[in-house]
Write a structure and sequence with these properties.
The chain is of the alpha/beta class. It contains 5 helices and 8 strands, in the order E-E-H-E-E-H-E-E-H-E-H-E-H.
Length: 227
């Protein structure tokens, strides 16, 4: 897709073994599957079917949609839930208060460390929303620090999003903020769809972007060498 600018063509059936029955490691997204395929002809997309479908999202504090008051219109609108570095910088520098929550934790904490990290993340989210944060960025980018590479792992982004989403609902705070996932573990349309389904309004797949850039550079280098 990165090389051609076109999305791969898929068949309606999916005969991949269920992740829950597999003896191989799987990312969390693999445990969630579409229950049925609703087919349109031609395939529906926001370009050809803009009247009925859109990828646009809004970030910020949400008001009651049944009460059309001026305060409820104060939202940051984005054309797509998939963000690049420039989009992230714009969001963080905007007038909408944003806070980045680190989703990494030490490998030395062992399997029990995941539960502790998820609980800590949810508590931090509640605190930041109470302090006025209108955009929460759930980020595992700290793992890129050379000092952290061999010592740190991260909460799966789907688990992080779900935990924060439901904790904020329990506290009655969910409509006061939007969630953004900044993660290296999202590279397919299925991953993006799962994250949105779990309450995320935007995703910054930084590792996918970097992989595309590296691929383009390698192709240019090979083309130059061939000449």
């Amino acid at each position: 897709m990165a090389n051609t600018g076109k999305e791969a063509t898929f068949c309606m059936g999916d005969d991949a073994p269920l992740a829950v029955l597999s003896t191989k490691p799987h990312v969390l997204y693999d445990y969630f599957k579409q229950r049925f395929a609703q087919v349109t002809n031609p395939a529906i997309d926001p370009l050809r079917e803009g009247m009925v479908m859109s990828l646009k999202m809004s970030l910020g504090k949400k008001g009651n949609s049944l009460q059309p008051v001026e305060e409820n219109a104060r939202l940051l609108h984005i054309d797509s839930p998939v963000l690049h570095e420039g989009d992230m910088a714009f969001i963080q520098e905007s007038a909408f208060p944003s806070v980045t929550l680190d989703t990494t934790y030490p490998i030395a904490d062992g399997p029990e460390g995941l539960q502790v990290a998820v609980k800590r993340l949810a508590e931090q989210a509640v605190k930041e929303v109470l302090d006025g944060a209108e955009i929460l960025i759930l980020s595992d980018a700290a793992i890129l620090n050379p000092e952290n590479l061999s010592k740190t792992t991260f909460v799966p982004p789907l688990l992080a999003a779900g935990a924060v989403h439901h904790r904020l609902i329990q506290e009655g705070l969910r409509m006061r903020t939007s969630l953004v996932s900044e993660t290296g573990q999202a590279w397919s349309t299925h991953h993006m769809a799962c994250l949105v389904g779990f309450g995320v309004s935007a995703i910054h797949p930084y590792l996918a972007h970097q992989s595309i850039r590296d691929s383009v550079r390698n192709q240019k280098a090979k083309a130059g060498a061939a000449k």
